[in-house]
User: Fold FAD dependent oxidoreductase domain-containing protein from Phaeodactylibacter xiamenensis.
Amino acid sequence: MKHADFIIVGQGIAGTLLAHFLEAAGKSVFVIDHYSPNAASQVAAGIINPITGRRYVKSWRVDDLIPFAVRTYRQLEAQLNIPIFHERNIIRTLFNQGEENDWLARTGDPAYTPYMLDQPVLDQYATKTVLAYSYGEVTQSGQTDLVRLTGAYRKYLKSKGALLEDHFDYSLLTLTPEQATYKNVVSASQLIFAEGHLGTQNPYFNYLPFGGAKGEVLIVRIPGADFEKILKHRVFIVPLADSGLYWIGSTYDWKFDDDQPTSRGRDYLEQRLKDVLSLPFDVVEHRAAVRPTVKDRRPFLGQHPEFPALAIFNGLGTKGASLGPYWAHHLAAHLVNGNELDEAVDIGRFAKQ
Assistant:
């Protein structure tokens, strides 16, 4: 049987980043994960967007989260020898005078100046999309290649013999106050669940108010587009680096039966794209996944109130690319050094029923 300092269940963006920071702290890690093409990290575009919503507000703690995320992805690029993070401004459509006035008012606020332009540069979008009333442009934004990151980190774990590719069976987990042992294969002083939406099935943490939002996306080819920025115009059009393809999304379904693509979702996205583009396009792939969401829109971090050998890192939702690095580092510091968890993310904010 192998022994590690930490076992991590799940190797999406949450599990990958947590493993990275635990190893950076000098700890050994063993990961248990069954690959699924419908996992959220395999479907998401990895957009980092500091300005969100109809009121054009700064995302939560964005002044800290984005610089930390970019530094982390650059570190991982160097470690894994792959490109991961691509700086891309976001062109955002404004549909009427009121929206334009609201945007311009924000650009006059010193707290927003680093993230917003009042004079956007449309580039190729000016001639290859249906023009809207007006536009704004978001800076310090970008796209993170989560598929490439998690795939490369998976190979890294395999090369070290630190990955078990298997569905996790909770009945085969043995706990003592000081240790977690799985399947007589691996033991550790701490096991962290980073399962994404599958956390709803976790018998140890299913008391937490998990949500879930199913999203469907298209991967398309747009001959002659040559778009470099991200466009938010009813849907997101996101260039996928070095591929000539674009990520189109996403739908949001709060009620769903499974994580499979639907004809309704495809029709919706295709029609929205036709409304935006003045160029033809070809659908290369149609994907779907369930995002792990939380009632109060804050991640789940912390140790189980009754089983100290168990912990959780979950609930990154739609902003996993920007939230993940900062909070993975935060949890690693708590588990390794005993640093106090931020109350906003500590699962202690939810009393166990």
The mean pLDDT is 95. The first strand starts at residue 2 and ends at 9. The chain has eight helices and 21 strands. The domain at 89-140+213-291 is CATH 3.30.9.10 (D-Amino Acid Oxidase; Chain A, domain 2).
